[in-house]
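Friendly challenge for the regulars: who can give me the C-alpha cells for this chain first? No prize, just bragging rights.
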Amino acid sequence: MSNNVINFPVKKIKTHDVAYRVPLYGDEQVKIVVAAVNIYGNIHSAVTEYTIKHQDPLFIVECLKKAHKDYLFSTKGKNIVAQILTQIEEVKIRKG
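First reply, four minutes later:
Bragging rights claimed.
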C-alpha cells in the first residue's frame, strides 16, 4: 500500500514576515503609551516606562486605538496618540 503514495515536490517559498516598531519621542509619548496599555491592555501587572519595551508592538497599537476612541484622554492626549499611531514603522523580516 505504501507504493501507491504520490510524492509531490516540496516548493520552498520565500516569505517576508512583518514586524512593527513603535518609536516614541519624549517622555510625554512614553507616558501616554504606558497609560493606554495599563488602562486598555487587560494585563495582570502594571507596565512602566521601563517595561513597555517588552510589550508586543501590535498589542500597544490596539491599546492606542482604544485610547483614541475613548473619552478618558483629553483632546491633547488624543492628538499625541494620533501622532504616535502615524509614527509606527513596518519592519520586514526575511525568512527562508
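The longest strand covers residues 15-21. The two ends are 34 Å apart (CA to CA). Your move, everyone else.
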